[in-house]
Design goal:
- Keywords: Kinase, Membrane, Transferase, Transmembrane, Transmembrane helix, Two-component regulatory system.
- Pfam families: DUF5931, HATPase_c.
- This is Sensor histidine kinase.
- The chain has 377 residues and is an alpha+beta fold.
- The chain folds into two domains: 3-164, no CATH class; 235-377, Histidine kinase-like ATPase, C-terminal domain (Heat Shock Protein 90, 2-Layer Sandwich), CATH 3.30.565.
- Helices cover 63% and strands 10% of the residues.
- It contains twelve helices and seven strands.
- The protein has helices spanning 3-18, 20-28, 36-60, 64-84, 100-110, 112-129, 135-203, 206-228, 240-245, 265-285, 318-324, 329-340; strands spanning 237-239, 252-255, 262-264, 292-298, 302-309, 344-349, 355-362.
- Strands 2-4-5-7-6 form a five-stranded mixed beta sheet. It has a two-stranded antiparallel sheet with strand order 1-3.
- Strand 4 (292-298) and strand 5 (302-309) form a beta hairpin.
């Protein structure tokens, strides 16, 4: 039962209780009423509509047709009260708090802006049919508009909190299930693969190759279990660890903080694409056995990822030569993406010493220095 359902039920009780206002004041001024029978009929109609509207909301929720009809009947009731509840005074008796029922329904269904608009519509009707602008109608306007705005705001906050609680519960349940699966995999598949790897290395020959393949599958399975444990964050953000963890395997090691490294979703996607280009360059230009290490560092106002390999490296100026030849993989796929994110790239390499690509992106768009990073300029 969400906050909207709770508010609907509370509004139902409120509307029936609020009918006591015109009944009480009408009874006290009954002898002075110009049309007592019409006043009684108006109260009966309001009672019937209150029951019908609450049943409509209960059965079909906050449908637009029900909300507009509720507001229309409320405006009509305000107009009718000026005629039926005329007691000979300067200001006819009002239907009072009952008017707020439709305003609360609009606020619960569509938020604070709609709640304030509904309150303003009912208030304008009061001014038109109950003697214009005076202290009574001004007080009603302030109360109705503030009621609609405040109720809508609280409902929106409550709905957002409920959504977060549901997602947190779902993530918690999923994490427990992943932990259970990880234990089962560790107690069965991973141990068998480790045993095959060890025994294959001991036997040698073709068994050694079989052991090596089993070792690669063990590492890949461990990486899969780890990457499955990443949690999807809220509010349009992504955990960079989740995106980079997909690279982990027999030749690629990912080292990242234990806590989520959150970035705006598009920033995280572009950052991960730049890292993927760096990893692909290693696979394309280096021997098959080359190892790659990804290091993720969360610096608070910025995030840095280093891609290091133990490949053959390259001579100074080689990147400039490649760009001049029209091979723009590094220039566009890596430097171009990071530059668009307001970040910086540094590349350090030497023949026989491997290569390190350092990428740093600020959390605020445009907040970092463009060009190359502090190393390898």
């Amino acid at each position: 039962m969400g906050i909207q359902t709770q508010l609907r039920r509370a509004n139902t009780v409120f509307r029936f209780v609020a009918l006591g206002y015109p009944v009480l004041f009408g009874a006290l001024a009954f002898d002075a009423l110009a049309r007592p029978l019409w006043a009684a009929l108006l109260v009966a109609v309001l009672l019937g509509w209150t029951w019908l509207a609450t049943e409509w909301y209960r059965r079909r929720g906050y449908e637009a047709a029900a909300l507009y009809a509720d507001l229309g009947v409320t405006v009509a009731a305000v107009a009718a009260s000026a005629w039926a509840l005329d007691a000979g005074g300067e200001v006819p008796i009002s239907v009072g708090p009952w008017m707020a029922g439709a305003v609360l329904a609009w606020a619960a269904a569509w938020g604070r802006r709609s709640g304030a608009i509904a309150g303003a519509v009912v208030s304008v009707a009061g001014m038109l049919f109950r003697g214009g602008v005076h202290s009574s109608t001004v007080n009603e306007t302030v109360l109705l508009v503030l009621t609609g705005f405040a109720a809508g705001h609280l409902v929106r906050l409550g709905v957002a909190a409920e959504q977060r609680m549901r997602e947190a519960a779902e993530r918690s349940a999923a994490a427990r299930e992943r932990e259970r699966l990880a234990r089962d995999i560790h107690d069965s598949v991973l141990q068998v693969l480790a045993l095959v790897q060890r025994r294959g290395s001991e036997i040698g020959g073709e068994a050694a190759e079989l052991g090596r393949l089993a070792g690669r599958q063990e590492e890949a399975l461990r990486a899969l279990v780890r990457s499955a444990s990443y949690r999807r964050p809220l509010d349009g953000q992504r955990d960079l660890r989740e995106l980079l963890g997909r690279h982990e395997g027999p030749e690629v090691t990912v080292a990242a903080p234990a806590t989520p490294v959150l970035l705006p979703a598009e920033t995280a996607r572009q950052f991960a694409a730049a890292v993927a280009s760096a990893v692909d360059n290693v696979r394309e230009h280096c021997p098959e056995a080359t190892r790659v290490w990804l290091l993720v560092e969360d610096e608070g106002d910025a995030v840095q990822v280093s891609v290091r390999d133990d490949g053959p490296g390259f001579a100074p100026g080689r990147l400039e030569e490649a760009a001049a030849e029209g091979r723009l993989g590094v220039a566009q796929s890596i430097r171009g993406r990071i530059r668009e994110l307001g970040g910086a790239v540094g590349i350090v390499s030497a023949p026989g010493a491997g290569t390190e690509v350092e990428m740093r992106v600020p959390r605020t768009a445009g907040g970092g220095a463009g060009g190359d990073a502090r190393r390898g300029r």
